Amino acid sequence: MPWENFKEEEFACKHCGKNGISHELINKLQSLRTELGFPFIITSGYRCEEHPIEARKKTPGTHAEGLAADVYVRGSKALNIVSRAKDYGFTGVGVNQKGDARFIHLDISEEKQDRPRPHIWSYWWTTLFYFGTRLSLSFMFLLYTASAQTLLMSKGLKYWLIKQEKKYLHATLPNKTCI
Ligand SMILES: [Zn+2]
What we know:
alpha+beta, Muramoyl-pentapeptide Carboxypeptidase, domain 2, 5 helices
């Protein structure tokens, strides 16, 4: 299905490329985007259950159901999205407006156990998570480099660390293909 301002690929899982995004979700995003008139940078759309963020949860969330997208946005644009979201059929609005990883989460989920709808919330863990992951990976890499000459740490660990860092970056950076 063609959309004026979105490509389905923008919503693919950044961990494996699988794409289970709902077309209804993109339809609603397109309508809202058309009204607001500025680009929506999608930082996260569909996330498979093995995606690092979903894997941490007790039960996979709306992203794993293909019903949610995070839009990288701040300031007055973020306020415009939040103000208009309900009128365009979004039932879940998550607000993260602290630090570098600012975004508005929009989803079209129905009410479920432990998932009230319509609902708005803010994230308390994201800043901690983003910076925490970054910091601990850097620290582990430092440790690895410091002890690289010993037999205490394997080459395998180095590649594991690099893989984790890549995964982390893919999971958090905005897509560049935004229209
Ligand atoms: Zn995946």
